[in-house]
Amino acid sequence: MLRRTFIGLLLLLVTGTSLGADKTLRVGITPASLNDQLALLEMWRDYLQHRLKRPVEFVQRERYRETMDLLQQHKLDFAWVCDYPYIAMGNEVKLLAVPVNQGKPIYRSYLIVPAKDTHTRSIADLKGAVFAYADPLSNTGYLAPRFDIKQAGYDPQTFFRRTFFTWSHRKAIEAVASGLAQGAAVDSYVWQTLAKVSPNLTARTRVVKQSEAFGFPPFVANRSVSQADFDAMRAALLDMSKNPAGQALLAKLNLDGFIAGSPDLYKSVAHMAAVIGQP
Amino acid sequence: MFFNLSLRYKLPLWGGLLIVITALTLSLSFMGQAYDDLKQDVLRSSEDLGLTMSRALFPLMLHDDVWRAFEMVSLPFQDGIRANTMHAESLIVLDPNKRIYVSSHPERYPLLSDLAAIGREFAYVDKELVTLQAGETQVLEPPDSSRLFIAVPIISDGMTLGTLLVVHDTSAFWFRFLRLAGRAFWITLIVLGVLLPINWYWGQGMTKPLSLLARHMVTIHHQLPEALEPGIYKYGDELGQLYKAFAEMVAQLKEKALLEKQMIQSERMAAVGRLTAGIAHEINNPLGGMFNAISTLKRHVSLDSVAQMTISHLDRGLQQIRETVAALLVEAKLKNRSLTAQDFDDVRLLVTPSAYKKRIELAWSISIDEPVSLPSTLVRQILINLLLNAIQAASDGGHVSLQASMNGNSLLLRVENDGKTLTSEQIGTLFEPFSRFSEQGNGLGLWITYQIVQQLKGEITAGADAGFTHFLVLLPLSDLKDENV
Question: Exposure string (b/e) for B43-71, b if CB count within 10 Å is 16 or more?
Answer without folding.
Answer: beebbebbbebbeebbebbeeebbbbbbb
